[in-house]
Specification:
The protein has 174 residues and is of the alpha/beta class. The longest helix is centred in the first third of the chain and has 20 residues.
Length: 174
């Protein structure tokens, strides 16, 4: 009888715990202390005034193919490496469909590298990825991607040129 009662109480706690864990039943305590801090993600960040472009050799990129074209990441990665950009990987994109032909995901501390890379594409958008400590950029080539800027225009892009903010950028507190 005593073991049956203990078993019944433990089963009740197990069921309650599972209901709380799956959020079917709200937890009786307010848990504000454990909620994740909101991060700025998928925001077009503004650069600090006077930010200049960087040397291509200081840019490290993972190139992702989000289109149905075979070998796109490898082709673009090869072209970028010709200009001195370090390619860390060429992969297929597993995330959501990019909202622009080219998206450069960057952390806050790699914005000069991200905007320098974005200048190489006529329709690139720079977005924050929510991280703060990495300088590796994610370059996502969408279905609408057609080509990089022509070689003549790319040759004119030098390190030390002042970078401009896009019209729809958001000032991010650092």
């Amino acid at each position: 009888m005593i073991f049956g009662s203990i078993g019944l109480v433990l089963t009740l706690f197990l069921v309650l715990g599972l209901l709380w864990f799956t959020n079917i039943l709200p937890f009786p305590m307010k848990r504000d202390f454990s909620t994740a801090a909101e991060q700025e993600e998928n925001v077009v960040p503004c650069l600090v005034e006077g930010t200049t472009s960087v040397e291509p050799s200081s840019i490290t990129v993972r190139v992702y193919n989000a289109s149905t074209r075979t070998g796109l990441a490898g082709n673009v990665g090869g072209k970028l490496s010709e200009y001195g950009i370090v390619i860390s990987d060429e992969l297929n994109w597993g995330g959501s469909e990019p909202q622009a032909p080219v998206v450069v995901y960057s952390s806050l501390n790699a914005l000069p590298q991200a905007y320098t890379l974005a200048r190489m594409f006529p329709s690139a958008t720079v977005l924050l990825d929510g991280t703060t400590d990495t300088e590796v950029l994610d370059l996502v080539l969408g279905q609408e991607f057609t080509e990089m800027r022509p070689d003549g225009e790319l040759a004119e892009l030098q390190a030390g040129q002042e970078l401009t903010n896009p019209e729809n950028c958001v000032v991010i507190e650092r």
